[in-house]
Design brief:
Cathepsin B, Chain A, 28% helix, ubl conjugation pathway, Herpes Virus-1, alpha+beta, 5 domains, 23 helices, zinc-finger
Amino acid sequence: MLHPMDLLRSNLSRVRIPEPTNRIYKQECCLSFDTPKSEGGLFIDMTTFLAFGKDCVVWNYEKTGNPVYLHIKQTKRLVPEDRPSKKPTLLAIGVDGGFDNNEIEYEETHSIVILPDYATLPFPSVELPEKVRLAVDAILRAEGAERKEQIAAWIADKKEISAFAMNLQQIDNGVIVPPSGWKCAKCDKTENLWLNLTDGLILCGRRNWDGTGGNNHAVEYYKETNYPLAIKLGTITADLEGADVFSYPEDESVIDPLLAQHLAFFGIDFSSLQKTEMTTAERELDQNTNYDWNRIQESGQEMEPICGPGYTGLVNLGNSCYLAATMQVVFSTHSFYARYYKNQNLKVAFGLAPADPTVDLNMQLTKLGHGLLSGKYSVPSQEGNDAATPTATAEGIPPRMFKAVIAASHPEFSTMRQQDALEFFLHFLDQVERANAGKPEVDPARCFKFGVEDRIQCSSGKVAYNRRLDYILSLNIPLHAASNKDELEAFQKLKAEKISEGKEVSSDEIVRPRVPLRACLASFSSPEEIHDFYSTALKAKTTAVKTTGLTSFPDYLVLHMRKFVMEEGWVPKKLDVYVDVPDIIDISHMRSKGFQPGEEILPEGVPGDEAESSIPLANEDIVAQLVSMGFSHLHCQKAAINTSNAGVEEAMNWLLSHMDDADIDTPTPMSQGGETVVDQSKLEMLISFGFQEEVARKALKASGGDIEKATDWIFNNPDASALSHMDATTLNATSHPADVGLPDGGGRYKLMGIVSHIGTSTQCGHYVAHIFKDRRWVIFNDDKVGASINPPKDMGYLYFFERLNS
């Protein structure tokens, strides 16, 4: 057998000296949550600079043949129990002269290991080849890839004050910027618009690499004029710090300390917004936030820590509680448990992964699943020499690599800012569905998916049916349905008296409305009037009635409580309300009946007749208000149409839930002005692909004649072919092409998970999960996992229900 040094020399060609641009992993295994502190330490592949724990390193050798590894092991440094405490001289923790934060100290050792026999050579050693010494030194000196990503995310949020802000010259040319209806001064772009702070000209932003975005008019204007600063329209809210100001000469996002003054110059006045910031209601909400915090986190209660399989906490990476709370509930479902833990081990996932497993969603979800569910990283920690006394659960696992993968395609989730748990949940499911495209039988996201059907009846008596798929049931909270109206009335009188006396209401005197969940579900199903509905039967606008039902019931039903509403003046407000949610609900009555005998379908529009159209029109008032909040014109049109012009709040909630839809950027069909002319050659090309002529024609109209977008439209609207020649005899309650193959069953569900939010908006505060496991409620508060004493069932933001099998 060769000596370890001879083995190393024979494999020198497999050792690389890292370049400054190489990503070097040395804090955590790419396939598990093992670290240098783990029992087996960490092995860094000296060819790829990927890190592997003791159990996984052999898989990497088998897959790549790379034999040389740098082994890093950290062991606890023994500290004498009688070591005297140093007197602090600085008001700081964990720094020289500051308070001792009692952090455990570790000793780090290094060695060179050659697989498959784990032949070991000590490092440092002058006997090692120079190439190996240089490579190891470079690896140890380098900033780890994990740390680099974290720093990049923090820096991305840190803006500097612009050198051009304090002395910005503004030209008084009479420009007053309206709150909505903006358009680029040089083209027809109505999104990605920037207001030049020198002369008030509105121009479109830069063109993206894929042709989307703007037409570069704003940056070209800077080159012509040298006017330095512009603000992105739609990012202006009462919180001016969140506004997106860009400096062209500095080529980065900046802070403008005089932004309010610079905006007021063009008639954008924030004094009215500032007044609403501390209304009485908001002051009450501030007082209640402390109560929320204690109630949702169950503060002040002696909580029994829990550890073991399924009870592993997630370390907060910096405002990542929205991710932690959501993923804890997701991995408590049978579908995700089976897909990424029970039916797929780490070795199989690694075998399927590309050369860099850190960028593979399947691998990182399997890693996260095994980390959370195996129990390997959730063992009682021991204190002192008394091994019989477990003091607390383990530290939890940091979901760094998973966050980097899931956020790669989303500019917001890749930052260190707080995010909306609902938006993250929908983005996550979209990514999982894409990763499992073409394999519906293994797609765990389908367990949340269901069909929705809108039935619209116009005053002619004829009906239209619109169908769509969704992952969440988003519910309004009808405050008028509160069950404690007498207490509320008494509280309002008390509050009026206190205000007249110049006193404030104390937090223990505040009474919140209590709304039963059944009232929220009834609000979803109840008929609503649609004004200005264009009836193809009457060839005129009329009032129609819309009712909504579900065409399938998912394995897991997610209810989103619309606690966040937008008040006049772009001010987001959180409803101060309790929702009484029972453990068992029955939504059987919400199943759509589908087309009924005797009903008559509204006719489609006759081509060429300008007064007639089968395509619903977006209410321009709703569209204008949404555009003024910063959404794109096209997205706002779609939101208004898909909510049947029910109102701004309904449209905004639809928009927030569908931002990641594959067809969100597909142009809407021509909604007025007669038949869209279709290019015959493009039509024939789509027919040659095997699509029906009628479907191909619809797709070309919907995509503005773009072949590629038309093809996408067809794939994203699988029911188009069935609906294109569906008549009164084929439309029935059991024929729903869009939801074929989706899980379906009875309508009785049991509450199994709650994601609660503490704070005044989804962009700040804290998220906590409560999950019903092993016949008891458990709180997951980042890395802390414990038995829940009083789960806040009436304070949830997202409720997860599991279907009960009859």
